TrEMBL record:
InterPro entries found in the cross-reference section: 2Fe-2S_ferredoxin-like_sf, 2Fe-2S_ferredoxin-type, 2Fe2S_fd_BS, Beta-grasp_dom_sf, Cbr1-like_FAD-bd_dom, FAD-bd_FR_type, FNR_nucleotide-bd, MRET
Domain FAD-binding FR-type: 11-114
Domain of life the protein comes from: Bacteria
SUPFAM superfamilies: 2Fe-2S ferredoxin-like, Ferredoxin reductase-like, C-terminal NADP-linked domain, Riboflavin synthase domain-like
Keywords in alphabetical order: 2Fe-2S, FAD, Flavoprotein, Iron, Iron-sulfur, Metal-binding, Oxidoreductase
Species per Swiss-Prot/TrEMBL record: Georgfuchsia toluolica
Full protein name: Flavodoxin reductases (Ferredoxin-NADPH reductases) family 1
Entries under PANTHER family matching the protein: NADH OXIDOREDUCTASE HCR
Length: 345
């Protein structure tokens, strides 16, 4: 989740006060927050929060999965990993401390245990900072469903890169129904399995795949591999769920082949040129129109806007209802122009 955008007017923001910072690895930390009035935050295990952060006099937005559990509502937590070019993530790791306040939109996201079909037997597979929604789901189940059967498979480069290592070990020791499998690429310690996670290792580690539910989060290639491993074993893909904050890829072959159209936003008295290779979000941001692009992957729904007239193609309709789609709403980050457009934000 490394995506940002500029935005002028952000609705439904709640102030969150940082109350704790835990250094997880050399390049990752967990931040715990409470609301300014100490009221609990209502969310589902696996969901994310979009934070508004000022970086170098620019207002940016960033989506982070919650690593805490709603069964312990006294605080919420996110876990951030430093990434090359990550303006918000790196800024927060460099500057965010207990006592600081951030504003955030209410939790959201369809990748959660409540809304996705699931069985009582789960496999939670994650890599790197993808651990965050998976550990939220695990914590929730361990608090609320004692009979749940959880296999938690986590991949990292080395033991030093294992995020929440102490917490994972604690959960493994405290709960007979939480089986931890750590896979590292190099320098394994006792109990680790040396990777990478391939189809053969996947089958060896999870021989009883049928009847389970898979939740996975991590780099795009990692999740694609897990999906292919499961599909090859005739897994019921209704119970396969993945979270992805990878920026959507344009359908157009290249900007050289793009066709130019006019995009109008009458409510703001603005118009701009949009190429068929560009997303609506790119052009709306360039025109300084008030749109949030927190995930840029067609997942969070923050860039929802309405196409009043014109033709578009969209790669994602996540978070949009049938009524939204019928009314012309699209996700700007995942939508490209196929004619002149009139839009509303």
């Amino acid at each position: 989740m490394n995506q940002t955008s500029t935005f002028a007017q952000t609705p439904a923001l709640m102030p969150l006060i940082c109350i704790d910072r835990i250094e997880e690895t050399a390049d990752a930390a967990t931040f715990a927050f409470r609301t300014h009035d100490a009221k609990p935050v209502d969310y589902k295990p696996g969901q994310f929060v979009i934070f508004q952060v000022d970086v170098a006099d620019e207002q940016l937005h960033r989506a982070y999965s919650l690593s805490s559990t709603p069964s312990r509502p006294e605080h919420v937590a996110i876990t951030i990993k430093r990434v090359p070019g990550g303006r918000v993530s790196n800024h927060l790791l460099d500057h965010l401390k207990p006592g600081h306040m951030l504003r955030a939109m209410p939790p959201a996201g369809e990748f959660n245990l409540i809304d996705r079909p699931s069985t009582g037997k789960l496999v939670l597979l994650s890599a790197g900072s993808g651990i965050t929604p998976c550990i939220s789901i695990a914590r929730w189940l361990l608090d609320t469903t004692p009979q749940a059967d959880i296999q938690f498979v986590y991949s990292a480069r080395s033991p030093a890169d294992v995020i929440m290592a102490a917490e994972l070990a604690r959960l493994h020791d405290a709960h007979d129904n939480f089986k931890l499998i750590r896979i590292v690429d190099q320098d394994p310690v006792e109990g680790d399995i040396q990777g990478p996670l391939d189809a053969a290792l996947f089958e060896r580690l999870i021989p009883d795949l049928q009847g389970r539910t898979i939740f996975t989060c991590g780099p795009a290639g990692y999740m694609q591999a897990i999906e292919s491993f499961a599909s090859a074993r005739d897994f019921d893909m209704k119970y396969f769920h993945k979270e992805s904050f990878v920026p959507a890829t344009a359908n157009a072959a290249s900007a050289d082949d793009a066709i130019s159209y006019e995009l109008q936003a009458p409510q703001f008295g603005k118009s701009a040129r949009i190429d068929s290779s560009q997303s609506l979000l790119q052009v709306l941001e360039s025109a300084a129109l008030p749109v949030i692009g927190a995930c840029r992957a067609g997942v969070c729904g923050s860039c929802k806007c309405r196409v009043v007239s014109g033709e578009v193609s969209s790669r994602s309709t996540a978070t949009l209802s049938e009524a939204d789609i019928a009314a012309g709403y699209v996700l700007a980050c995942s939508t490209q122009a196929r004619s002149d457009l009139v839009i509303e934000i």
